[in-house]
Amino acid sequence: MSTATPRNSSNGTNGGHSPGKRVKVIVVGAGFAGMTAVIECQRRGMDVILVEKYTNSAEYGDIIDFFANAGRIVDAWDNGKVADRLLDICITKAKWMQMLKHTGEAVHRDPWYLKPEHFRYQYAGQRGAMWKIFRDYAEELGVEMHFGVGVVDYFETVDETGVVLADGTRITGDCVLAGDGPKSLARQKVLKLKDKKTNSGYAIFRSYFEATEEFREHPLLQEYLNPDEDTIKFWIGPDSHMLAYSWQGGSKVVWVFFHP
Asked: What is the domain partition of the chain in residue ranges?
């Protein structure tokens, strides 16, 4: 287990503040980047306010993977307890990512864990359930969170910076971290770049579900129900490809299909 501790040399203060005054940070967007930011800032002694336009981000997304470079940060939270919660619901019994042609012919396989110690740092599972664990930990830390209200403007003066909410409320702080994703208002404000949509020519059809009795009885799906090994497959076809995951004895299933 990682024993990393927060680099809290400033105790949440900076040189531009009166001694002992805590830095106030506003984070816009409660995706995994935003949630990680609020958790890390709060752990370092800052006062954090999170603003998110959606009422419940746990309802969005199907699958997400975190690998060791990100997971080692999570493993440091609450002496590894947050990582334990994630591992309880994530893929933990996979040995390989299998790569195949669209015909089913095996091409290659990569080890799911590059190194044995990555088991603690690697999380792949249902996005909503994983996000809720992040949100719950932020709540335990005492982060002030506002859901269901969007940011319509950003402002900055000599003394403060902040955001304006859709209901007209102004929130001020010492800095704003914008993690507002696609259609970012902050990107347009800060970089003066229009958020122009570019069509890649491809779309994604994806689904997360729990295996039904009909699924369990299908002869071609038995390998996805192995209680001793989680399954991860990647098919490559003409101008398209597909991923499929199953874990916890096949009770959890995700597939993602990329197509023109």
From this structure: 24-89+126-191, 96-113+201-259
